[in-house]
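From the methods appendix. Each design record in this collection lists the tokenized structure first, followed by the designed amino acid sequence. Records were kept in a plain field format so they could be parsed without special tools. The example shown here is representative of the layout used throughout.

RECORD:
FOLD TOKENS (246 positions):
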């Protein structure tokens, strides 16, 4: 019922040459799942044009890794939701843990960004997840629920259920440590329960050191509807294997 989504977050990696190589690999994937890629802003037009000029017959979407919460104005260095739509973005990540921890984004700011993204018809991918310290203190579900609640308070439950949620435990990002399939499923189930009946249609992705070697077990879990992949999405071959497993 929920169409799996495999999203590749390229973070701040690549140059024109490597991006061209990655796109060529992506166009070869061919899989049942929807595929989405999140290049650095400056490469979005290049990726969009390459996909637009191709004749791929599977779903491949483009998104941004971040966006401003403001519509326009004197916000030096920022990119608005309208600009992303102008360049054909269907998705935008909001609240990635690197934005929260390095740039100090709060739950309230993330909620503001989420609202701005939805207002222009782009689908937000809302990232949530706990630190290792929070997990060790048994606070995982409370932290994740509060991150989601802040957005529900701002836009309402219906709007959150229309979006995509990505559970990314901070301790599993870029560390090679993946949450076990059981650990991930337990959090995904709790998120779905928080969303209630409307959440049956919501895609909840897992992210954190996903690779071809661990993806199949994660995707077998009933509440895991795909993945948000970082490092492994920079290798077209590895990413393609993950997409085919979803
Ligand atoms: P890694 O797959 O490199 O752990 O990154 C996960 C992530 O942060 C995706 O947004």
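DESIGN:
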């Amino acid at each position: 019922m929920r169409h799996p989504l495999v999203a590749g977050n390229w973070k701040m990696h690549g140059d024109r040459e490597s991006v061209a190589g990655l796109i060529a690999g992506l166009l070869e994937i061919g899989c049942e799942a929807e595929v989405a890629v999140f290049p650095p802003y400056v490469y979005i037009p290049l990726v969009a044009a390459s996909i637009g000029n191709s004749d791929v017959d599977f779903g491949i979407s483009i998104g941004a890794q971040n966006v401003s919460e403001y519509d326009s104005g004197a916000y030096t260095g920022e990119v608005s939701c309208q600009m992303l739509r102008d360049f054909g973005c269907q998705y935008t990540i909001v609240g990635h843990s690197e934005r929260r921890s390095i740039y100090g984004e709060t739950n309230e700011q993330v909620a503001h960004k989420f609202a701005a993204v939805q207002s222009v018809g782009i689908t937000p991918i809302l990232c949530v997840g706990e630190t290792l310290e929070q997990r060790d203190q048994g606070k995982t579900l409370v932290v994740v629920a509060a991150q989601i609640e802040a957005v529900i308070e701002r836009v309402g439950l219906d709007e959150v259920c229309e979006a995509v949620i990505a559970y990314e435990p901070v301790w599993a990002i870029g560390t090679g440590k993946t949450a076990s399939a059981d650990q991930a499923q337990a959090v995904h189930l709790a998120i779905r329960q928080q969303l209630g009946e409307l959440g049956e249609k919501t895609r909840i992705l897992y992210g954190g050191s996903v690779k071809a070697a661990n993806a199949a077990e994660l995707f077998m879990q009933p509440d895991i509807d795909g993945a948000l992949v970082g490092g492994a999405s920079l290798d077209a071959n590895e990413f393609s294997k993950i997409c085919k497993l979803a």
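APPENDIX NOTE: The chain has one domain: 5-245.
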